[in-house]
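Troubleshooting: if your tokenizer reports a length mismatch, compare your output against this known-good record of 103 residues.
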Amino acid sequence: MFRFMSMLCAAVLRTESLIAFINRGSQHAVCICGISLSGWVTNLHDTYFHTADTHIPLLGRADLWDIFLHSAYGNMTGKHAQKNRKTVEKCLHFEQDFKTMGL
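Known-good structure output:
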């Protein structure tokens, strides 16, 4: 789970860096769009940075924890994560922040 969280964080920070770079050299609007995993990154970026003009998550949700613990993808979740469900939920649960800070 640590590697997955690190990957998400790196992708969100990379997105923020790209937006900052674009904004330094342009007055054009910036749209962030992602499909599936990139949709999750789009939602995370919108929730915690909200610096793009538009965020369009395609097939990306804000309930990552539920996907890994209660969906068909649950069988791909590692044994350590399955044994520590509360920790997984705590780490991947950003729905309330998404509702109040995001879209």
